[in-house]
Fold these 2 entries.
Entry 1:
Amino acid sequence: MSTVEDYVARIEGTCGAEKDVIVVFKYEKKEEAISRILKKAELKNNLSGIIYELTFQGLSFRVYSSGKAIFRSIKNKEELNSILTALLL
Amino acid sequence: MEPHRIREDFPILKREVNGNPLIYFDNAATTQKPRQVIEAEKNFYENHNANVHRAVHTLSQEATELHENARAKIAHFINAKDTSELVFVRGTTEAINLVAYSWGLRNLKRDDEVLLSLMEHHSNIVPWEIISKINGFNIKYAKVTPDGTLDYEDFENKFTGKTKIACLSQVSNVSGVINDVKRIAKVAHENGALMLVDGAQSVPHMPVDVQDLDADFLAFSGHKMLAPTGIGALYGKKALLEKMAPFQGGGEMIKEVSFSQEQQRCGISWNDPPWKFEAGTPNIAGGIALAEAITYLERLGMAEVFKHERMLTDYALKKMKSCCKKLALYGTLDTPRKCGIIPFGIDGMSSHDVALLLDNYGIMIRSGYHCAQPLHQVFKLQSSARASFYIYNTTEEVDRFVKVLKEAEQF
């Protein structure tokens, strides 16, 4: 049974008033993670396969082909975990 | 300056990130290390490792000689009058904390005033705020203009008979603006106050002469000037260091600890400066490596280092101005008043988005507040992206950086 931790290496709150959250996917799992996210989230914009602007459950976020994602307006860890669970599993 | 030749000395610059050659533009946070510095640290551990001072064996004597020679080298680099004026610390933050606790805690009384500016790094704000909560003195913040320049008139007008110390960065870590700390030091001294200079962003990038500045204290970090992390220096005028109380207790800072049978207590006398402020075993290898980093920089010449970074800043600003309509440059664009730091943003993208986009192409920049939240409030920014240059950066790297920024416009 897969878990979010199978895909996520690290979660970091950013420095700045925006309070963005960066999710860093495990290097060996990043392509699978991005592929799963792209299947479930709605693609709003795509810059040459480098950045994907997506929405999911009313939440807007960006995924980078380097294996990182940036989420905005996340209220707490629980909300992020719930979104990641829905996107990745 | 020949950056292409210099790059040969930096093993890390040969690596790729996300399938692209690494471009390292986060030098204001920390710099990369040349082979010579890495070798100096390795050589110490492989051939001379021992604890310094108070041992008679050969290795300890070698380690002590290397350690104290490093101190002399670093002191000479900033033109300190005397080697004893150079205290080894972990970095700029610890150096400022040392002054705040050792000097400030004992000399600042209720109603006294400490003068700072709104462009200071948190490391030159927080120690003073902490101590003020204990001693009850006041802190005044001088204004910064919307283009990130220090409001000199405001700073100078804020001096009163109660001002005991003025603390100012010589170069802003966000805007790269160079402050005339010599001018402020003169006004501070005329008002009977001391002058602390935060040299974290100046000492690595330009010639700094503490006697010319007439700084009472100067703090700087090794890791921002090619040396390892965990080593830095505090310069303090000898007469001040002699009067100051120790910062931490134990080890090298002690002259004598004698137990009194009568009082059932230990009487303690302190070592002389600089050792009075160096409790515990110091970062010996770090100090030696910092001296090697200085040798490397001196070979290039600090004036040449400064010239190269200014050329890159000028080049990058010109390219950035025309590259993308969505791009905003923050702070003054007047390069003669700046060091090699460029804060910027892209409309519709947070600074972290910009940093992640560049990271995708192997380009490392910083995003966020850069530990200077009050200055971001002056700029009315939620955060900023920051590119910062050093001796190994090239115009070709700037071209690639600007090319990626152009892509952001499509988004």
Note: The interface with chain B takes residues 14-18, 20, 22, 45, 47-48, 50-51, 53, 62, 64-66, 68, 70, 72 of chain A (CB under 8 Å).
Entry 2:
Amino acid sequence: MKVIVNIQLKNGVLDPQGKAVHHALASLKFNEVNEVRIGKQIILDIDESDKAKAQERVTIMCDELLANTVIEDYTIEFPAC
Amino acid sequence: MLVAVAVFPGTNCEIDTKYAFEKLGQEVVLVFHKEEKLPEGTDLVVLPGGFSYGDYLRSAAIAKFSPIMKAVIEFANNGGKVLGICNGFQMLVEARLLPGAMKRNENVHFISQFHHLKVINNDNTFLNKCSIGELLNIPIAHGEGSYYIDDAGLKELYANKQVLLTYCDEKGNLKNPNGSVDSIAGICNKEKNVFGLMPHPERAIEKILGSDDGVKMLEGFIN
């Protein structure tokens, strides 16, 4: 089963990379951009057919390693495939 | 004093750290990350600078699960003294031995330069040879050194005198190179046996190389 983990800095935590990219977009005249936040995506392929169980296991993976919950939030997705 | 310096794949400051403590007359052992025990009689563990595990995922995110880190965490929880420098500081926050977290530098650049620091608290082992308000000139070299902690955590740091050092200019005025909360460069835990800082005191132990201000910092651990 494929599982996608999206990780981004929490709201209120300044994202310096996003800010730099925002400036770059503005310099290219993409003035409609209000904010840029950069995150990372981790794609897992796991041996599990039960979605609920997978959700539970991946949540533990996120809390223990994949995300630093002091500064980052994460979402877990199950892509249709 | 026996100093154990942990070495992870990608660590690159272990020899400097060893050299610095040996210059101060101490016995130093390098301990590989696969070891499960610290050497018998270890008085101080140093987690040195570098790029453990290539800084993959996040700085120090993977190092905290090394076999040796289990021993280091146990050592710290039993009151043993631990000093984390740069990547070592990142390991200590990732392992939750110190509060807060480390983010990319605000300007998104790797910064490598001498930087002045101000001593904020000295009633601890690490900075007991320095005076409050004293300025120290110590190299910094990091890309992810922007210290973050929430407001409640910050209040607690101040209340318990856990803020050790802040970044400043040569006159002691505020100068924040990386966007750290309150310009914080180094902290300790509540129990004052775990210390972390982004600057490199082990690179400032000889005047001919720019500064020897690191000596009185490292000497704090020596009775």
Note: Chain B has a mean pLDDT of 97.
